[in-house]
Amino acid sequence: MIRINLLPHREEKRKARRQQFWLFAAVAALSGVAVWFVGHTIIAGYVDGQEAKNVFLKESIVELDKEIAEIKGLREQAEALLSRKQVIESLQTNRTETVQIFNELASQMPEGVYLKGLKQSGSRINLTGYAQSNARVSNLMRNLEASPNLERADLVEVKAATLNNRRVSEFSLNFTIERPKTEEPVGKLKGKTPVIVGGKP
Questions:
Q1: What's the pLDDT tens digit per position in 85-130?
Q2: Does the entry feature the keyword Transmembrane helix, yes or no (predicted)?
Q3: Phi and psi (nearest 5°) for 165?
């Protein structure tokens, strides 16, 4: 039996090409959606991982800040304790110094000299007072220079003044306290000849 195709030949080809186009378009759209989904999933995973790392870093930074603050506080406490220790050691070393100074001044003060003021700054002391004459001021300075605990007596000024209707010399002078040096360890004294002050060696 003979079969006759009544549809135009071109129309069938056009219809076949149209079906292929839509098929390819559907496949391309599905492929694009699949690629987008996979890419989005991977990127979301990276973002979540980075956010977790950022949270961990922030928590670590907070902990480190706390530790740094604690270390700073401990350092300040250590410095304060060290300062107190130095002050206490200084007080223990020089606690009898004031008494020694007054005793020394009392023993070295010549007759006719009267003190009116004493001011200490470190090892430097300023004396102010009155003397019956300039010679007595010179005598006081010689006594201070000869003292084993005092040294470098320097006259600041001396001027005429009137005290109780009497003509006197008003003076101001400085001198330095000779503080004892740190004793040498026993081991360093071996081999040295001992010297006894005020007696025979």
A1: 887 877 666 667 777 788 888 888 888 888 888 888 877 888 888 8
A2: yes
A3: 60, 25
Please name the amino acid found at residue 134.
Answer: N
Radius of gyration (C-alpha) of the chain in whole angstroms: 51
Q: Where are the alpha helices (DSSP H) in the chain?
A: 9-94, 97-108, 134-146
Q: What is the DSSP letter of 147?
A: -
Q: How many Å from the N-terminal Cα to the C-terminal Cα in the chain?
A: 157
Q: Which two tokens stand for residue 166?
A: 């009497």
Q: What is the dihedral of CA 46, 48, 51, 52, to 10 degrees?
A: -110
Tokens representing residue 105 in the block: 């001044």
Return the ∠ at Cα 169 (arms to 164 and 171), rounded to 5°. Answer: 120
Closest CA to 156 of 142, 170, 166: 170
Asked if 148 contacts 172 with a C-beta cutoff of 8 angstroms, the reply is no
At 19 the pLDDT is 85
